[in-house]
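stage 2 :: seqdesign
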């Protein structure tokens, strides 16, 4: 009796399955499609989150680089004072890798009376440096009057104002040594005393002793 009933139940289930196989297959197919779509949506959401985080990191990185660039730009600025025969003398804020030729251009260029040989145009600028452009033949009258003085009086060369040609009037000083004096003068805001000449290469104690009576600051 029980066996017959069990067989009846199994037979009934088989009939139901056979009659509804297409519906079942469709249901399974729809379920698979639903699961597949759900998986795709989940992956896309996670991808958007990752992309958003990467975008934030990129923006933060750009902001940091921009801030660093501004700081570097500020740190690379120096102040230089240019005096003498230029059109607009004064204090200028320039880049740390600028040279004398740059600040002369910023100052409007040389005046007609400027002795362009009195400065080294290729020299690199330093913070708080003073660049002095001398006048052509600034001491011509002084030189002529000195020639009329007695032999006991001697003309002195000013280390802070003399140009290259005037410095070469000193014994043992040629064009290259005169350039060294002008370069040292520009780098150290002028000479404070004549003894500083010994700090320049090529001016030892012997040469200084020969020159000291003809120097002034």
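stage 2 :: out
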């Amino acid at each position: 009796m029980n066996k017959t009933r069990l067989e009846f139940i199994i037979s009934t289930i088989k009939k139901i399955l056979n009659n509804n196989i297409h519906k079942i297959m469709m249901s399974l197919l729809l379920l698979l499609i639903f699961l597949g779509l759900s998986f795709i949506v989940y992956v896309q959401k996670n991808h958007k989150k990752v992309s958003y985080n990467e975008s934030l990191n990129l923006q933060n990185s750009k902001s940091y680089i921009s801030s660093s660039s501004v700081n570097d730009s500020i740190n690379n600025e120096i102040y230089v004072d240019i005096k003498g025969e230029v059109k607009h003398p004064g204090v200028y804020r320039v880049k740390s890798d600028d040279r004398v030729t740059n600040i002369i251009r910023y100052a409007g260029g040389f005046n007609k009376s400027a002795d362009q040989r009195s400065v080294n145009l290729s020299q690199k600028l330093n913070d708080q440096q003073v660049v002095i452009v001398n006048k052509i033949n600034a001491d011509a009258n002084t030189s002529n009057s000195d020639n009329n003085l007695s032999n006991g009086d001697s003309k002195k060369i000013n280390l802070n104002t003399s140009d290259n040609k005037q410095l070469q009037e000193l014994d043992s000083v040629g064009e290259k040594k005169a350039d060294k004096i002008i370069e040292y003068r520009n780098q150290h805001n002028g000479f404070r005393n004549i003894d500083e000449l010994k700090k320049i290469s090529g001016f030892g104690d012997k040469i200084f002793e020969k020159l000291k009576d003809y120097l002034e600051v």
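stage 3 :: structure notes
- The CA atoms of residues 47 and 68 lie 31 Å apart.
- Residues 21-75 form the longest helix (55 residues).
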